Each structure stands twice: as C-alpha cells, then as structure tokens.
Amino acid sequence: xxxxxxxxxxxxxxxxxxxxxxxxxxxxxxxxxxxxxxxxxxxxxxxxxxxxxxxxxxxxxxxxxxxxxxxxxxxxxxxxxxxxxxxxxxxxxxxxxxxxxxxxxxxxxxxxxxxxxxxxxxxxxxxxxxxxxxxxxxxxxxxxxxxxxxxxxxxxxxxxxxxxxxx
Length: 167
Hints:
The chain is mainly α. It is built from 4 helices and 2 strands; from the N terminus they run H-H-H-E-E-H. It comes from Desmophyllum pertusum.
C-alpha cells in the first residue's frame, strides 16, 4: 500500500499550502490547493473503482502497493475478522474469516469519504479565493489615495463652515 501512503503525504503538503494561503490571504496558494482537491478526488475515485472492481480495474493487480506484494491493512485486521490458518497443498496460508464488512468495502467507503472531503475542500477553496479577489484593496484615509485625490483636493461635504473663535 505504498502508493496511497505517498499520495497521503503529498495531500498533507498541499493541505499545508492551502492553510498557509488562507492565513496569508494569498489567492494563488488557495487555488493550488483547490486544483489539488480535484486531483485528489480523481485519485480516490480510482481507488474506489479498484476495490469495487468496476470495469477491468481490480485491486489484485498490485498497483496500489507499487508491485511489492503488500496488502491492505484492512484485509488482515478487518472489523470483526478472525485469522484462520488454512492448509492447502501442504502450505499454510493465513486467511481471515467472519468479517462483518469485507475489506474492499471498508477501503471503498474510506475513499468515498475522501471524495466528499475533496469536493468540500475544492468548493471552499474556490469560495475563499473568490472572496480574496473581491475585497476592496485600496487604502483610503482623510485626504487619502482615492482616484481623484492626485488631480483635485477632496471636497468637503459638510454645510457647516469653520469660523475662527474671537475672544
């Protein structure tokens, strides 16, 4: 299961970039995180297709372990599973029996939850990025940097005129 471990490490790195972008009000970082969320969504859809054996995809092709022969942790330590040592042809191979939920369904549900979180992350990233670009970026103070201040002095809108106080 080395491919998902590497992908999770990359996902954590992009999550840190996204959080940093939100904290620093940097829209490009948030957009990068949003694009990663789309990629993450696709990766988890592929994992779901592998475990549910949709079309010609199957988890037994050993792509998720990068051809090392490792199995999912849930295959041996599933919910309610008991390890049984079965002897076939003079060899003993440990198998699991009595699982409440087969490990392929557990992996698929986990990938489905990641798809939902990736979609929410994409939506929130787009929303935050849009709100950053819609903010009013000009600085205005009394006699400030508004558009007309370089060409004409600011006008007073008050009808009251200042008079010197005589004593």
